[in-house]
């Protein structure tokens, strides 16, 4: 539970007129909910899963059981999705593209990063920001960078025709607002990745958006891109929430395209890092990323798609030149005006609450509650 947090501190200022989808933990088990006009409606007896509710396409709340006004101290929020695949796009901003190249050239060694960062930014920072991925201009830039010995697999997905799309976490493995978020205990260079994530149904319709933290281990991926799975998919390493904001007349994909995403990290050592990024700087349109995810692949229960992050914190936290890395106890808050605030505390993945409710246990619970008839 979120303690004494007020709804307005977690949800957007207009939350009482917005339309939201999510999950809560009840005494009997997880239930999908609709939050409409400030009221929480338990939808478990209408559709036992968030996936089923999304596939039905009815977000009116009809047939739901009222649980009163939304209150984070009473309604125990879980990650707002369940059976959806968790997909993610990487290197969708010029800054993050440069940082991935830096990781690669530094072989995951933070001590070598500063000098490489300065040289690469001077050589190609402006040119990467200026081109449209997959365009003739991007192809010409690629040829020039190859000739200069500056080409990278990360630049291929940054400005080439094909976006990077990978699986971030198993079904049911994501954590929600207020939960602990995990960093591998053997990682010494890592950071949060504050992002907007889209919720897409099995037909390819983008139905809403939420905030997410796609945690990144810079040392692991920097040593080898083949370690991406180990860098990205660990216990409690993916947070989503607080709720999915459903697209309607007051909130559309254009709000996502123009959204600002804020990040604040507060450490137990007194360290504070803040920043904001604008989705208008993304190199590929969000719906183009959805289209590429669906290319020659089906998702019968729908999927979540992280859109990528502009943040790659480089501010020194300890000794000069080391840059940023998480410490246990960091509180990470991600916010956006129309989507609310997602806050999680950092622990090691080894110490985070173990993931025990997989698909089998999930469906046994639904069956015991009589929700599968």
TrEMBL record:
SUPFAM superfamilies to which the protein is assigned, alphabetical: FAH (SSF56529)
Gene Ontology terms for molecular function: hydrolase activity
Residue ranges occupied by any Fumarylacetoacetase-like C-terminal domain in the UniProt entry: 164-347
Keywords: Hydrolase, Metal-binding
Family membership: Belongs to the FAH family.
Protein name in UniProt: Fumarylacetoacetate hydrolase family protein
């Amino acid at each position: 539970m979120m303690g004494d947090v007020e709804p307005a501190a977690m949800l957007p200022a207009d939350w009482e007129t917005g339309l939201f989808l999510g999950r809560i933990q009840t005494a009997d088990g997880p239930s999908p909910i609709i939050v409409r006009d400030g009221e929480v409606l338990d939808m478990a007896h209408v559709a036992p899963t968030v996936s089923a509710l999304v596939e039905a396409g009815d977000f009116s709340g009809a047939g739901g059981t009222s649980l009163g006004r939304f209150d984070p101290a009473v309604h125990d929020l879980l990650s707002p999705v369940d059976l959806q695949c968790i997909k993610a796009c990487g290197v969708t901003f010029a800054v993050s593209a440069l940082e991935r190249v830096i990781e690669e050239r530094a072989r995951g060694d933070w001590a070598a990063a500063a000098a490489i960062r300065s040289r690469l930014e001077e050589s190609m920072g402006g040119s990467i920001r200026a081109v449209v991925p997959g365009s003739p201009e991007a192809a010409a830039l690629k040829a020039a960078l190859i000739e200069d010995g500056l080409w990278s697999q990360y630049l291929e997905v940054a400005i080439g025709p094909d976006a990077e799309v990978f699986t971030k976490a198993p079904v049911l493995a994501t954590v929600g607002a207020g939960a602990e978020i995990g960093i591998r205990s053997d990682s010494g260079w890592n950071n949060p990745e504050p992002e907007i994530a889209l919720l897409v149904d099995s037909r390819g319709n983008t139905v809403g958006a939420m905030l997410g933290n796609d945690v990144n281990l810079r040392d692991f991926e920097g040593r080898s891109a083949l370690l991406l799975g180990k860098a990205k998919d660990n216990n409690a390493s993916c947070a989503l929430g607080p709720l999915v904001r459903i697209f309607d007349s007051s909130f559309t994909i254009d709000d996502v395209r123009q959204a600002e995403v804020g990040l604040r990290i507060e450490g137990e050592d007194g360290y504070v890092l803040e920043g904001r990024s604008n989705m208008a700087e993304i190199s590929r349109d969000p719906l183009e990323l959805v289209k590429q995810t669906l290319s020659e692949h089906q998702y019968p229960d729908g999927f979540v798609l992280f859109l990528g992050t502009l943040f790659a914190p480089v501010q020194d936290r300890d000794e000069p030149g080391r840059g940023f890395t998480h410490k246990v106890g960091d509180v990470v808050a991600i916010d956006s005006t129309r989507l609310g605030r997602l806050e999680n505390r950092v622990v090691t993945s080894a110490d985070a609450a173990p993931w025990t409710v997989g698909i089998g246990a999930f469906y046994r619970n639904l069956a015991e509650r009589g929700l599968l008839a």
